[in-house]
Amino acid sequence: MQGIFQPRQGNRCYSADPRVEWQHSGGLTPYPEAVAAMAARVAAIRAGTAAELVWLVEHPPLYTAGTSAEAADLRAPARLPTFRSGRGGQWTYHGPGQRTAYVMLDLGRPHGAWLRPRDVRSFVAALEEWLIRTLARFGVRGERREGRVGIWVADRAGGTEAKIAAIGVRVTRWVSWHGIALNVAPDLDHYAGIVPCGISAHGVTSLAALGIAASLTAADAALRETWPEVFG
Predict the structure, then answer these.
(1) What Rg, from alpha-carbon coordinates, does the chain have?
(2) I need a labelling partner for 230 at 20 to 30 A (CA). Which of 33, 52, 111, 129 fits?
(3) Which are the catalytic amino acids?
């Protein structure tokens, strides 16, 4: 599946750091294809034959289960296709209008002030900081919550706390894969089929639900602009 990273119609490659390539795949990327491509790229990074990669994709509607996912948290098994992901975390949703960024970095070397070598907690904290700074570009204050991985905001519509971005990672021989999912303008009704990240006390939101008319292109630009602030 390495071919998915080769230039083709709808795909764009760009990088401000020659050690880290950025790839954007147009259209909807099937989830099994994405997982296979990530696995191949991670192996190549470990072997020293490929650069590290941030891969921006959009998936068709689906649910994925992390290594801690509970069967009972899949409320509507027949609603959408489901996949076991191999990443950490519990159930999450992917679909159109959501920017998924798969981050494949060699955690054996330093990348910036927020990431210490071979420290998974530091890596997750760096991903959180990246999302917080990205949301700030849209005037949204993203926040961490103790014991809850991901980024949270005050939902202006309901006045309650809601999750706007999820994080789920896997690390293989100190090379990371999987990554983050930022809700730009997805169909939030699809979240009713799961207990997102095993947390039923709080809902989910998006930039669109907060009244911010942002495109995926604008979100991508913000992610690229804030990346060097966190990862160097």
Answers:
(1) 16
(2) 33
(3) 197
